[in-house]
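User: Quick one: structure for sequence A, then sequence B.

Assistant: Sequence A:
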Amino acid sequence: MAPTLSFEFFPPKDLPASFRLWDAAQSLLPLSPEYVSVTYGAGGSTRDLTHETVTALSQQGARVAAHLTCVGATKDETLGVARRYREAGVHDIVALRGDAPKDQSFEPHPDGFASSLDLTAALAKEGFRVQVGAYPEPHPDSRGAAADLDWMRAKMQAGAQRAVTQFFFEPETFLRYRDAWADAGIPGDLVPGILPIHDWTKARSFAKSCGASIPADLNEAFERAIREDRHDLMALAHTVELCDALTSEGVDHLHIYTLNRPDLTREVARALGCPATEPLRKVA
């Protein structure tokens, strides 16, 4: 049986990016995702753009989960944003600590939420369906795997209903984490985050920054594929193999980080047997 899917988009920063986002939505929403999510820029830099994107996607009939972070805002400002989402018919929030602007360390606003745990609890109290992030390999700022699991348990007990993982390159990374999650008795759903690799160099750099291990044999395979001008085929084969291995182990939902580039995601979905309806009609 084909898995259910959800997709992550990021808000556009200029007019050409707006067209790319709409094209991505037009291509992927016919796959009937359970929901789509929209990211939040470092330091809260895309707050208004995120809200506009969430509203636009919601108006297309999609269930949308809006990212919300602890950075750069007071508690009242952050909850004000959340309430604006509710007024727009959006009831799903992805609660995250958030990233500081480049070359700065994370510092919560003195009158803001100190952590994603505090934000999660406040949003759950407001009646939102809350999702949180999870790291199948320890978060770069954590004290280790055991501390990560304790933190995840606290967030889920604070009211989160689902956790979506950072991306990873081998199925065993997620499956080991799922076992550890179960052994720790953590409530809620755990969903793997999947990154289709549009650019191996960028994906490798991102992996280093977020603590995702890079298998030597995979790096070698991509380097060879790049030399032989078959990167796209390698990316498709790797992503489908990863997803297939996960679904074979009972994973029934995949969250895909699309990077607003729909083609590879759509090919992966087709390979996994996910049905698609007709593409959306472009609005003049």
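Sequence B:
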Amino acid sequence: MLESVRVRLALWHTATLALLLAGFAGATYAYLDRSTLARTDHSLKAAVGAFTHEMAAERGDEGSNAVAAREAARDFRLGDTRVMVFDAGLRTLAAGASSARGPMPSPAAV
């Protein structure tokens, strides 16, 4: 069966195309994975920077870190990003308003 030149050539082309497609799929996956991770990191850095600025402004007004965290979390708006602030014992110190996406998760879930 493999003595036919036509069959061997068809198998050779099939194997070559399969390797090319697998390589392209792997490269595409690696690129999308890296770009998605970079975009997520950038978005989180922007949210942390904006929340830090908001909390610093509230701390100047309120004086107390706990009260400033509650006020900043309540007032913070950046797209659909919600904020939770935990103390050293992982107790919820402040949480943003819940939205249509449901309630905020517990510290253990985070």
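The helical segments are 5-62, 65-75. The chain has two helices and two strands.

User: Thanks, that's what I needed.
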